[in-house]
Records
---
Amino acid sequence: MSEDTLVQEITIEAPAERVFDALAQPEQRLAWWGRTGRFRTTRMESDLRAGGAWTMWFETPHGPATVGGVYRAVERPRLLAFTWRPSWYDAQESLVTIELAETGGVTKVRLTHSGLTGAADRASNAGWPDLLAALRGYLAGK
């Protein structure tokens, strides 16, 4: 793996369609996307199609923030890829690819965040394990 890429994997006891919906549907993403003490997601707008734009708004201890981009691939229930451009630091646009593979009602989630530039960019995007754990917790309660 190159230095410009972060890869995280997690297994979730839920069908791929439920996992995909929790990732893609704004009302579901608002329910779990956040990190206690760091940020809380307050709103999301999404045009869920290849070429469609998306934006999320957050409250943080340092004030409001956003992240957004454009969907590159939307293949329910196995693939979601989108560009990533955060407002909280000066970053180049990067790419997040989430692949889902279901076996017997259990879904393996593989998240690849590529196009990161430098150690500060990688460090600022190192929260994926916490977010994936929050996704798993959200789906466990459904």
---
Amino acid sequence: MNSMKRNDAIHFARYTRDNLALIERLSTSEPDVHVITQLANSLLGLVVFVWERQFVAHIKHLNLTELEAGGWPRIEMVIGNSDTLGDFVYHLRNATAHGLITFSSDSKILSDVVITIEDKKWKDSPVYWCARLNGENLRDFCFKLADLVEDSIS
């Protein structure tokens, strides 16, 4: 029955956080380990899992400005706006599910990479929402979101 834990949002978030931390440690000694790629995979897993497991109800009203004041990373809004974590996760979910995330470089250094996240209404429609954050901020966001899932549900 132990293998079924990953179906639970708390365990999935914990495993995602642990995998990301392991990849970070390995990246200092292993040339073929890519932290940015793992960050994108972690983001995809966390956001889609959180959304599909209805965890968004727990975060929909959390104010991003207040979270930032409490240590969450700053998210640069380029087009549109997201005042709440729930709205931001909604757009992240759409962007990850539809491949609307781009990276500014192939650098393995977190601070060197800017991640652009976009949302569209339809495949051929213009982008109506766009946010940017660097690799360090994406890392911090993934860890904070995983912690929030664990703290909120447990």
---
Amino acid sequence: MLTRRVAVIGGGWAGLSAAIEATLAGAKVTLFEMAPQLGGRARSVEIDGIVLDNGQHILIGAYIETLRMMRTVGVDVESALLRLPLTLVDPAGRGLRLPSGPPMLAFVRGVIGLRAWPIRDRIALLCAATSWAMRGFECDEAVTVAQLTRRLPANVRGELIDPLCVAALNTPAHSASGRVFLRVIRDALFSGKGSADLMLPRLGLNQLLPGPAQSWLAASGASVRTGCRISSIERVESAASAWRVDHEVFDGVVLACSASEAARLVQPIDDAWAAVAARLGYEPIVTVFARSAGARLPAPIVALPSNDDTQPAQFVFDHGQLGGMPGLLAFVVSGAARWVSNGADAVRDATLAQGNAQLASHLRAPLEHVRTLTEKRATFRCTPALARPPSTIAPGLMAAGDYVSGPYPATIEGAVRCAVAAARIVAQQQDR
């Protein structure tokens, strides 16, 4: 049987995963990435001699495929990631801490242990979770997270539901899909032992997958071409599923680039698919890096009280507890469209003021701004009944990415799972 030639267009985590999986399946892979480096929206950048991630990404125990990809390319997951039970605490150290053990029991014990909430509020959350479970974690596709949780007490929504929603879907609860939120809750909190565990990077994002994957692919005979933007994809009429990528012919293609780039390439082939991809809306994420010598927070990640007016950040990461620079803090502003419209200076100043006020007991000196990084198209807006393009475009031509139709929001695991499935199809097309 002849070795199949597979093109992967895009070198983010989806593209890297597709290239790895196709290589494992025996294909001869060529990966094209238009940026000078791999990693896409989850990469490290060097600024003024300091290496920073372009966003603070959290993995969880349920990210089975992502962890498999990392292990495949030689990453020691146990040392590269700090694993701890789901912990969602405020600057005073109060909040949800799930103990170890069976998922349902751990959730019940964690909620009962929330002493800062009145017992009636804890019971209300447990009753809501039980109701969701009895309905199979399903709801009408038109329901928002705010509508889904409207009967919960205000502090439960403000201190738990809203932060979880914006962290998982990067979309505010009032406009986020209730159905997708429930799927995330099911898979993260109740799918198996350790599924809800936080897995926080101790290394820069480049060291978690992009760098090791590039070395592994080269050693496995794949070709990786950075700084290479594809102009066009055309069907080879003499073959059922062959495609010409610029001037090269491949037996199969995985489009693992952004939705807008995929729409540009697909438009001459399937205008309807391209139109759906092009219509997706986006939410930005802003990360404000700041430092204060000697600062140490009550947990590696802390949830911050936030609002739309003066307090932008929902979470802050303590890099000193993650093996990074002591005193370096990363404030994350998700669903940041309003703040981005106000300008970088506004979000920087508001975040520093918020941090100095809310973390005052943990700071020995006022926060010093290091850098503000903005991903304007960090994720698609995960709204109810959202139309997302399918993975299959045509025989031998597949799309892969966090935006492709599926049950999950824009997460690394969703992108990787989609990429793995697409790679298996194009690498084995002739056998189907």
